[in-house]
Design a protein that fits this description.
Its EC number is 7.1.2.2. It is an enzyme of class 7 (translocase). Keywords: ATP synthesis, ATP-binding, Bacterial flagellum biogenesis, Bacterial flagellum protein export, Cell projection, CF(1), Cilium, Cytoplasm, Flagellum, Hydrogen ion transport, Ion transport, Membrane, Nucleotide-binding, Protein transport, Translocase, Transport. It catalyses: ATP + H2O + cellular proteinSide 1 = ADP + phosphate + cellular proteinSide 2. The protein has 14 helices and 19 strands. The protein is an alpha/beta fold. It folds into three domains: 65 residues, Thrombin, subunit H (Beta Barrel); 272 residues, Rossmann fold; 69 residues, Substrate Binding Domain Of Dnak, Chain:A, Domain 2, CATH 1.20.1270. Strands 8, 12, 13, 14, 15, 16, 17, 18 and 19 form a nine-stranded mixed β-sheet that branches. A six-stranded antiparallel beta barrel has the order 1-2-5-4-3-6. Strands 7-9 form a two-stranded antiparallel ribbon. The longest helix has 26 residues. The chain starts with a helix and ends with a helix. The protein binds adenosine-5'-triphosphate and magnesium ion. Adenosine-5'-triphosphate binds next to helix 3.
Amino acid sequence: MTAPDRTVDRHTTRWSSYLRDCGTLVGFVEPQQVSGRITRVAGLVMECVGLKLAVGSACTIPMPNGARVEAEVVGFDGDRLFLMPQSDVEGIVPGTKVLPVEATLPRPGTVPHPRRRPSDRARHLPVGMGLLGRVVDGAGRPLDGLGPLLTEDSGPINVRPANPLDRAPIVETLDVGIRAINAMLTVGRGQRLGLFAGSGVGKSVLLGMMARFTKADVVVVGLIGERGREVKEFIEHILGPEGLARAAVVAAPADTPPLMRLQGAAYTTAIAEHFRDQGKNVLMIMDSLTRYAMAQREIALAIGEPPATKGYPPSVFAKLPVLVERAGNGLVGGGSITAFYTVLTEGDDQQDPIADSARAILDGHFVLNRRLAEAGHYPAIDIEQSISRAMHTITTTAHQHAARRLKQLYSRFERSRDLITVGAYAHGTDPVLDQAIALNDKIEAFLCQEITDNVGMPQSLAELTSLFS
Ligand SMILES: Nc1ncnc2c1ncn2[C@@H]1O[C@H](COP(=O)(O)OP(=O)(O)OP(=O)(O)O)[C@@H](O)[C@H]1O
Ligand SMILES: [Mg+2]
């Protein structure tokens, strides 16, 4: 061996040993953890100093009792951050530590999501086939006692909607198994619809029927802000075992903090998006959009945003389209999310600001009428007030003519109902009304449907045409 070779060898050995020592020492180093402190808790909002985080970032609060509370930055004032907890904060003391949840860095070899913000990486929840037949809360924790979720994937819960110009248009009809909807208010694959109704007029039953009968690959149900008792009833009695088998249910009932209810809605949409991105046709049901808006109102008012319309701050009206726009068709040739959002119309007031705003951002609205429900006419869909905006592009002219004819006769009968019932109408005065009276019983029977009956699209159309033949 020559002299220069020996020098290189010594040099390498020295460096290797130095680097090995460094490696060992790194193991002793305590990672520096930035933290803040809670200075104020007032109602729903907590204030924290000492952290500089973006709005929407996640943090963890180790509680004195050993539990950990997840929270989100919902606003700031100077150097004070406003945090909203995801669960109960009873037991918190002044000065409790706040730790930011660091976004995990993408691993080498993974393809970053095309529409993901860096901050979204912090909040990933389980998505995928393992959720079918399961009931989870807004944070992806199982509520059904069937053990841990066997999901292969996780996804960010807040994703920006796809570019509208890249989306496939609504061209195909979707069979929802309800005669009145298939025939009179045909739904298109990828359409987003509102179900407008007051309380107790049959929303849940109708949604349950659609969840069981719709020709979709998977169903994703979000029960947001409803009564806890109703969650159980919906899953056990209305959805039933056959409905649940192909459904993923996210439940964030009224007693959960508002942030959890918002997250529940975002998570429901994220699950549906994951299935859609795999090319599946998804039916998404969200009950209710109004409670989602109310959760956002609670948060916005708590951090000092001024109320505008009927106590709703402006941010509520900005949040609704952000959620709704995520549903719909995917890229051309891909899957779809057909979505139904229930909208509560308190006291059957169709002018409620949320109802108004929802009507403007959705592709149609189905109104459930209390008068019909009270008369035992179920599903209580008011075909005069309801509209499916995609219907004229996806149905044949003959179908449209028949539907319009039925609507005209129904409407004519309804307007003259009082005259007819008191016997003030003389037969033969108005030929259209005569036909309406003659067909009224058949039309009523056509629009009603038993909870257990599944009426497919071909049968619905055949029955519609046979009314006039
Ligand atoms: N298709 C139907 N056939 C027979 N009865 C029905 C039908 N749909 C609804 N009902 C009746 O209406 C009742 C109320 O329905 P549902 O619970 O779906 O109303 P809701 O609008 O969801 O009420 P809430 O506002 O309390 O959530 C049901 O208990 C049932 O008796
Ligand atoms: Mg209900």
